[in-house]
Amino acid sequence: MVRTGWWAAVAASGLMAAGEAAWAQGAGQTPPERAAALKALTDCRALTEPDRRLACYDAAAARLDAAERAGDVVVLDRDQVRTARREAFGFSIPSFTNLFDRDERQRAAEGEEAADRLASTVASASRGGDGRWIVTLADRQVWRQTDSKGLVRVRPGDPVEIRRGTLGSFFMRVGSQPGVRAERVR
Hints:
About 40% of the residues lie in helices and about 20% in strands. The chain has six helices and six strands. A six-stranded antiparallel beta barrel has the order 1-2-3-6-5-4. A hairpin with a 4-residue loop joins strand 2 and strand 3 (about 140-145). Helix 1 (about 5-25) crosses helix 3 and helix 2 (about 35-45) packs antiparallel against helix 3. It is rod-shaped. The two termini are about 30 Å apart.
């Protein structure tokens, strides 16, 4: 991926808009002020003289690029947002996951499934001292069975589906066995 000031600015604009919308909807409050580097870039649109406008954009894009490189501004594209959402699946991090609400609405508009389930394979599995399974998925997520229903066997390579239940619960289904309640450990 080529990282130029202009493309970083465009991506940051989308991310900041998504974050502000999520903040306003999720928290019921006024969104925080935009990052100074992004605000400087968007303020350039108000200039009508082409040479001044271009100079403003060039300077603001350079500052935004420098801020992104320094870690002061984070720029993510849609695929990176989806990867982050997948990695956070199963954790209760409302302020973090609310940033991705716009992505969910976009996915729904495009006819894609919502992020209410995860499909993977078993990398390893063991039983805890209480006889319940602890399953590590191919992407290194670790899930622990929380109910006492019996899973007969769990082996590396078995397909796993974890789906979101009600009230923050999750169900894990290994192969064709019945689903069990589970929680994400890491």
